[in-house]
Amino acid sequence: GGRCSCGVAWSNATANYAFSVTQASCISNYVFTHENAHIYGAGHERARGQGSYSYGHGYHHPRGDWGTVMSYPCNFGRRCPPLLRWSSPLVTYQGVVTGTAHTEDNRRVIDRRKEVLAGFR
Length: 121
Prior knowledge:
two-stranded antiparallel ribbon; 2 helices
């Protein structure tokens, strides 16, 4: 429908849908990691809508200096480069937390689902 995408994946996938597709030209810009995290159930930042888990969104720095792996580029008139980090209230970057416990904790999603995905055959 006229939209361009670097990748696609099922969110919170079952074994039959645990795959993603990433355009070869996008591999180096975090897309492969981003798409595979969807399989676990990790979602985009809250502004993009509800994900599989209410606490499983990506995170943008409050001033728009950067965003975590699952966030899209910022809308602050800045590039908002992605960090190769999961959103989490337990992780900081340049002295700023990369998420919140209630809404931006992709690390928690991945930790919750890792054994489920490890069991897929």
